From TrEMBL:
Residues 25-66 are annotated as: Disordered. The keyword Glycoprotein does not apply. The keyword Ubl conjugation does not apply. Belongs to the bacterial solute-binding protein 5 family. Coiled coil: none annotated. It comes from the Bacteria. This is Oligopeptide-binding protein AppA. Residues 25-44 have a biased composition (Low complexity).
C-alpha cells in the first residue's frame, strides 16, 4: 500500500456530518444497587472465567448504552442524526475508518493504492467478509453502494462527498477501482461509507430507497461487528455479536441502546446500574465524578469533535439582514452560558471548526457580548421599540420560535437563557422543546419548519465546511438555514480541488472568516466529552468523534 495513497491529511473520517444528539441532566444520588459497585460485569452471569486471571479478554455480557435521542432509521446514506449513525456503526462497516489520532486506516479494505495524478483509487477487500445473512461482501457491493449517491434519483444528504466520482469499476471479486473527474482531497470520506448488500437492495428503485423501511427500520443487514436484533421504537435497540465478523467476534454478547428522553431519568438509570455507558453532559459531570470516586464507574474525558450553535432559518425575513444576526450574537453572553450552564466545562466557539482541526484559526471576526452594540445594529437595520418594548419594523414585531430537543438539559437551559437575554434588546423568543425525532423532522428538508434552532454538529474530521454551508446543500443537504454566499461557495470549491494541505488550510480559514462575519449561526461553544462506563470495562479507547470506537474490542472483566 502506498503511503501517499492514504492521503494522510491528518484529519479524516469514514462518516460525514451528523447532527449531534448530546444529552444532559441534573444531579441525582447514586443507588446502592448499582451493579458497577460489584465485581459482577453488567449483563454478565458473574461466573469466574479462567482466562480472566491471565488478563486476556473474556467473552460475554450485555452492555446497556444510554441515549436521550431515538434513531430515525439505519440507513447510512440517508440518516443524519447521531442516534442513527451510532447504531449504524454497530451494524455496518466500510472500507476505511478513522483512528483516535484522526488518521485514516484500512478497515474492510486490505489495501488502497492511488495513481500519481490522484484520479484513480484501487481498493482491495479482505477475504472472507460476510454480510449478516451469510452472503459474501464483494466488490460488486462496493460498486453498488458508491453508485447510489451518484444516481440522479438519490435524494439523501450525502451527494456532495461523491460528486467527483466519474466511475466505479469492479476489477475482480475483491477489487474495485474508483476514477475521479478531478483530484479530491477528501475522497476518503466517500470511500469510507458503510457498504450496502447489493443482493437485498438492487431491485429497489433509487427514488424509493430512502423510504424502503423493510431494510432501514425492520431488518438492516450489514457486515459490521454486531447484528440487528430488535427495535422497540422510543425504548431501545438491541444488537447481538456477529460470530462471522471479519476481524473476529466481538467480546460482548450484545448491546442494548436504551432511549430515555428525559436526561434526569437517564442519570438516575446510570446511578442505578440500569444504564452502563453514557456520555455525561457538563451539567452533571461533577455528580458523575463523585460516583467515580466511590468506585461505581469510571469516566474517560477529552475535547469532543463538535460544536453547538444557535442557527437561523434565513428564509425568515427576520434574519435576512447580517446586522440583525450580528446583533443577536452581541446580545448573548456566551461566556456566561459556558460558565454557568456548563459549569465552565467548555469554551466559546466563533467558527464552524474544532480546535482539534489542522485548519482551525483563532484570527476571525468576533462579536463579543455588548448589549449596546446589539441595540445600535438593530436600529441600523430598521428595528425600533414598540409600545410594549418589543422591536418593530414595517408593522412586524421581532418575535420568533426557538426549537431544541428534549432530554438535552444544556440545550433546554440555553433556550431559556437566549430568551431572557434577547428580551434585553427587545426581541421576543418563544422556546419550544421537542422530542428528538419530531425535532429532526422539522429541521430536515423539505420541511425546514423552524425560525431558529439550538443544535450541534458532530463534525467530520475533515475541516471542509461545505457540507453544511455551501449553497448546493440547501435543497436536499445539511444547509438547513439556507445560507448562500457566492464568494464562499467559490472558495470552498477551490479548497476541495487542492491537494496541498497548507494551501487548503488557508482557503478553509478564509471561508470560516466569511462565515464568522456573516453569522448564519451564532456559534455557542465547544464541549468536552465525558464518557461514563463500568469500572470493569476493558478495551476502551477515547476517540474525539466516535463514542463507541472499536466497541468490538470492549470486554467486561469479572475479576475487577
Amino acid at each position: 500500500m502506498k503511503q501517499k495513497s492514504l492521503l494522510l491529511i491528518a484529519l479524516t473520517l469514514v462518516l460525514s456530518l451528523f447532527l449531534a444528539a448530546c444529552s444532559g441532566g441534573t444531579t441525582t444520588e447514586p443507588n446502592n444497587n448499582n451493579t458497577n459497585n460489584t465485581n459482577e460485569a453488567p449483563g454478565n452471569d458473574g461466573e469466574d472465567d479462567a482466562e480472566a486471571t491471565t488478563g486476556d479478554p473474556v467473552a460475554g455480557g450485555d452492555l446497556v448504552l444510554g441515549s436521550t435521542g431515538s434513531p430515525t432509521m439505519f440507513h447510512p446514506l440517508y440518516s443524519n442524526d447521531t442516534a442513527s449513525s451510532e447504531i449504524e456503526d454497530f451494524i455496518f462497516a466500510g472500507m476505511l475508518k478513522t483512528n483516535p489520532a484522526l488518521d485514516t486506516e484500512l478497515n474492510l479494505a486490505q489495501s488502497w493504492d492511488q495513481s500519481d495524478d490522484g484520479l484513480e483509487h484501487t481498493l482491495k477487500l479482505k477475504e472472507g467478509i460476510k454480510f449478516h445473512d451469510g452472503q459474501p461482501l464483494t466488490a460488486e457491493d462496493v460498486k453498488f453502494t458508491l453508485d447510489i449517491p451518484l444516481h440522479e434519483d438519490y435524494d439523501g444528504p450525502r451527494s456532495g462527498y461523491f460528486e467527483k466520482i466519474a466511475s466505479v469499476e469492479v476489477v475482480d471479486e475483491l477489487t474495485v477501482k474508483v476514477t475521479l473527474s478531478e483530484p479530491d482531497p477528501k475522497i476518503y470520506i466517500a470511500l469510507g461509507y458503510h457498504i450496502y448488500p447489493k443482493h437485498l437492495l438492487e431491485d429497489v428503485a433509487i427514488a424509493d430507497l430512502g423510504e424502503y423501511t423493510d431494510f432501514s427500520t425492520k431488518n438492516p443487514i450489514g457486515a459490521g461487528p454486531f447484528k440487528f436484533d430488535k427495535w422497540e421504537d422510543g425504548q431501545y435497540v438491541r444488537v447481538v455479536a456477529n460470530d462471522d465478523y471479519v476481524d473476529g467476534r466481538p467480546y460482548l454478547d450484545s448491546l442494548t441502546y436504551r432511549i430515555i428522553p428525559d436526561a434526569d431519568a437517564l442519570m438516575t438509570a446510570l446511578a442505578a446500574g440500569d444504564v452502563h455507558y453514557y456520555t455525561v453532559p457538563s451539567s452533571d459531570i461533577e455528580t458523575a465524578k463523585e460516583w467515580e470516586a466511590a468506585g461505581q464507574l469510571k469516566i474517560e474525558s477529552g475535547l469532543g469533535l463538535s460544536y453547538s450553535y444557535l442557527g437561523y432559518n434565513l428564509r425568515n425575513s427576520l434574519f435576512e439582514d447580517v446586522k440583525v444576526r450580528q446583533a443577536i450574537t452581541h446580545a448573548l453572553d456566551r461566556q456566561l452560558m459556558v460558565d454557568t450552564i456548563m459549569n465552565g466545562d467548555g469554551e466559546v466557539a466563533d467558527v464552524p471548526a474544532s480546535p482539534l482541526s489542522w485548519a482551525y484559526d483563532e484570527d476571525v471576526p468576533r462579536f463579543e457580548y455588548d448589549v449596546e452594540k446589539a441595540k445600535t445594529l438593530l436600529e441600523e437595520a430598521g428595528w425600533t421599540p414598540g409600545a410594549d418594548g418589543i422591536l418593530e419594523k414595517d408593522g412586524k414585531k421581532f418575535e420568533f420560535g426557538l426549537k431544541t430537543n428534549q432530554g438535552n438539559k444544556v440545550r433546554e437551559d440555553l433556550a431559556v437563557v437566549v430568551q431572557e437575554q434577547l428580551t434585553e434588546v427587545g426581541i421576543k423568543v418563544n422556546p419550544e422543546i421537542m422530542e428528538w425525532s419530531a425535532f429532526i423532522a422539522d429541521v430536515n428538508p423539505p420541511a425546514w419548519n423552524f425560525d431558529a434552532i439550538i443544535l450541534g454538529w458532530a463534525l467530520s474530521t475533515d475541516p471542509d465546511p461545505s457540507g453544511i454551508f455551501h449553497s448546493k446543500e440547501i435543497e436536499e443537504g445539511l444547509n438547513f438555514g439556507a445560507w448562500s454566499h457566492p464568494e464562499a461557495d467559490s472558495i470552498m470549491d477551490e479548497a476541495n480541488r487542492t491537494m496541498d494541505q497548507d494551501e487548503r488550510a488557508k482557503l478553509i480559514q478564509e471561508v470560516n472568516k466569511i462565515i464568522a462575519e456573516e453569522q448564519p449561526y451564532t456559534f455557542l461553544y465547544y464541549a468536552n466529552a465525558h464518557r461514563a462506563m463500568p469500572a470493569n470495562l476493558e478495551g476502551f479507547t477515547f476517540h474525539a468523534r466516535l463514542p463507541f470506537y472499536d466497541i468490538e474490542k470492549w470486554w467486561l472483566n469479572p475479576n475487577n
